[in-house]
Amino acid sequence: MEDAFARLGEGGMLVFPTETFYALGCLPQDARTLERLFAVKGRPPDRPLPLLAGDFWRVLESFALSPAEEALCRRFWPGPLTVLLTPRIAFPDLIRNRRGRVAVRVSPHPVAAALASGCGLLTATSANISGRPPASRPEDLDEELLARLGEGDGVLPDLPHPEGGLPSTIVELPEGEGGLRILRQGAIPASMLAIGG
Question: Domains of the chain, with CATH numbers?
Answer without folding.
Answer: 2-192 (3.90.870.10)
